[in-house]
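We modelled the chain as a single entity of 186 amino acids. Its sequence is:
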Amino acid sequence: MESYDERLLMSSIELTPSQKNILQELVNLHRQSESAVKGEDIAEQVDRNPGTIRNQMQSLKALQLVEGVPGPKGGYKPTSNAYEALQVQNMDEAADVPLKHNGEAVPSANVEEIDLTSVHHPEECRAEIKLQGSISEFHEGDTITVGPTPLSKLRIIGTIEGKDDTSNILILTIDDMKAPVGDVEK
């Protein structure tokens, strides 16, 4: 059990955008492989030099956000503190919210949060979709289908207008939104 001081420390860690981006990518890659992630793989995803990643990992280790795994299958693993620092839930028991990219299911991504940013302006309605999983394959103009969500059976179809790599967020212009959706034959 963490002490109050440890929780306070975790909530006050200020990461640079670069550290946040590297940590987010480590979490994404670790989720996919469920094993230690090599620095080279992170470097490739964030378009940085592997030496830079090694240097950043030393400071992230000092902050107790990553642990090094020695050996040929070694690399880095995020600690539970990493999830807290990124304000990401560890989604092991989370409900699965399906995601489609240009009509194709994306099994490696899970929708963590849907933020409807401007519902009071229907003609410019936007949604921010926070994902678990890499967003590097998503590009402006791509079509995204989110849902149906577990409880409200909400489904959003939208076009990517932008993305925030540091926070793992896709910004969509909503083309269609319905709730409830699902099979009626149950």
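As a brief sanity check on the tokenised model: Residues 98-178 form one domain. The radius of gyration is 18 Å.
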